[in-house]
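Title: Comparing notes on inverse folding

I've been comparing how different people in this forum approach sequence design from structure. To keep things fair, I'm posting one structure and asking everyone to reply with a full sequence. Here's the target:
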C-alpha cells in the first residue's frame, strides 16, 4: 500500500490510467513514452514485459479541479 498526502494541487489536472498531466496532450505524450519504454524505470527483478497502456478514449480528456469538477 502507498499512502500519499499533502496539500492538494491548486492547478487543474488530467488523470487517465497511470498518467497525470495538465492537458490532454501531456497524457498523449506520456502514453507514447510509456509504450516506447521512455521516462519509466525498469523493474530488474521481473522478467515479464511491461503492461501495455490501454488505447486512449476517442474523446478529448478533460481536466478536473481539486474537487473533481470538470473544467470547461
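Reply #1:
Here's my take.
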Amino acid at each position: 500500500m502507498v499512502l500519499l498526502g499533502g496539500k492538494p494541487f491548486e492547478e487543474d489536472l488530467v488523470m487517465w490510467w497511470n498518467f497525470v498531466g495538465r492537458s490532454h496532450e501531456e497524457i498523449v505524450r506520456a502514453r507514447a513514452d510509456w509504450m516506447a519504454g521512455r521516462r519509466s524505470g525498469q523493474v530488474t527483478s521481473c522478467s515479464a514485459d511491461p503492461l501495455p497502456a490501454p488505447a486512449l478514449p476517442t474523446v478529448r480528456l478533460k481536466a478536473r479541479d481539486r474537487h473533481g469538477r470538470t473544467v470547461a
